[in-house]
Amino acid sequence: MNGALEHSDQPDPDAIKMFVGQIPRSWSEKELKELFEPYGAVYQINILRDRSQNPPQSKGCCFVTFYTRKAALEAQNALHNIKTLTGMHHPIQMKPADSEKSNAVEDRKLFIGMVSKKCNENDIRVMFSAFGQIEECRILRGPDGLSRGCAFVTFSTRAMAQNAIKAMHQSQTMEGCSSPIVVKFADTQKDKEQRRLQQQLAQQMQQLNSATTWGSLTGLGGLTPQYLALLQQATSSSNLGAFSGIQQMAANSNAGMNSLTSLSTLQGLAGTVGLNNINALAGSINSMAALNGGLGGGLTNGTAGTMDALTQAYSGIQQYAAAALPTLYSQSLLQQQGAAGSQKEGPEGANLFIYHLPQEFGDQDILQMFMPFGNVVSAKVFIDKQTNLSKCFGFVSYDNPVSAQAAIQAMNGFQIGMKRLKVQLKRSKNDSKPY
User: Fold this and answer.
1) What span, in angstroms and rounded, lies between the C-alpha atoms of 114 and 112?
2) How far is residue 381's CA from residue 360's CA, in Å, rounded to a whole number?
3) What whole-number distance in Å separates Cα of residue 223 and Cα of residue 295?
4) 4-13: pLDDT as tens digits
5) Terminus-to-terminus CA distance in the chain, angstroms?
6) What is the reported pTM?
7) 419, 358, 432: which is closest to 394 by C-alpha?
8) Which stretches within 260-346 are classed as H helix?
C-alpha cells in the first residue's frame, strides 16, 4: 500500500486515525512504528510523500491508526507538543485526521436540557429514537442519584443528531420545568478547554491588573513619590492638559526622552472613549500616594531622577490605557502589525519567545496576556504553513527590556490547562529565527 505499514485484522470501531507532523523526512515506517508502539498496537502507518519527486520523498508527516482509541489518545497525550525528534526544531504535532472529524463521537453527541426530573434513560430513548439509532443515552445525576434535569444522547450519525435538534429543540415544556426543552450539540473537549482557558486568563488578567495597576511587579513600595505625583496629575485633571504637560516637560529636558512623544497615541485613544476611564483612577493614585508616605520629594527639573520618574509615569499611563481600553489597543496594534507585513522587534533585551502556548491561542490572545507588563510593539503566534495550525509558540516584543523581564518573572511557568508557559528572552539578533 504505497509503502504503508498495515496489518490484516481490523482496528476497533471507535479507533481514530491520527495525523502526525514534525517527523524527520528520513524516517521510514519501521522507525515510526518503534515510536508509536509503546502506546499500543499499531494497525497502519502511512507516510505522506511528495509524488512529484522520483523516488517520492517524505513530507515530514504521516497518518497512524492504532487498534484502539485509547492507544491513540495516550500517544497524543505523550507526544503532541512534548517530544521533539532528533534533528527536528519543533515538537511532534499529533491530532485526529480531518477524515475522522466527520464521525467523531463529539460531533454526534447531544446535550438535552430542561428535562423533567421524573424522566429516566428509557424515557429519553423513547423520545429520541424516532431520529435514528442511539448509541448512548445518559441522564446527568447528582451524588444523591437524583436527576439534574439534563441528559446526553449520542446518535450513530451527525445527520440523525441534527434532525433531532431541528425537531425537538424548544418543542415542548416538560413537567416541572420553567422553560422549553433545550436540544443542542454537547460541548466538545475543545470547547470546554477553550472556556476554561478564557476563565483562567480572565482571572489572571484581573489579578495582574489589581496587583500591578502600574506595571510595578515589586508592589506599591516600588512607586516613587515623583511617579505618584505625575500619575496623580495625569489622572485627576479634567482634561488632557496633564499629558501635554508631561510631553512639554520632556521636550524641555536635555535627557532625550524621545519615547514620550508617543503619548499622542494615548491622547488619541483617550479622546476616542472620553476621559471617564482615566479620571476614575484619581482615587487609586491618591491611595497609593498615601501608602507610599505622601507625595513629598517634588520634581527637580533636568535631573536623571526626574526623567526616570517621567519614564515610569509614561509607562504606567500607557499600560493603564491598554488595560482600560483593551479592545481598541489590541485591535490597533494587530492592525498595525498586519499592515507592516513583517515581524516588528523591540530593542535588545525586550523581545520574548513564548513556548507551550495552547493550540487555539492566536495573536489576540497572546497580546492580551502580555499587555499588563508594558507597551507591546508586536505579538505573533507562529503558524505551520502546511497544516495552518499554531506551532504553539510565539513572539512578543516590548519597547523596553524592563517590561520583558517583568513578563518573564510573572509568566514563565504559568500554567494554562495542562501546559506551563516557557517565557524567555530572544537570543541575539544574529541567531536564526524559529520559522
Assistant:
1) 7
2) 10
3) 11
4) 565 557 888 8
5) 33
6) 0.33
7) 358
8) 263-273, 276-279, 282-291, 304-324, 326-340
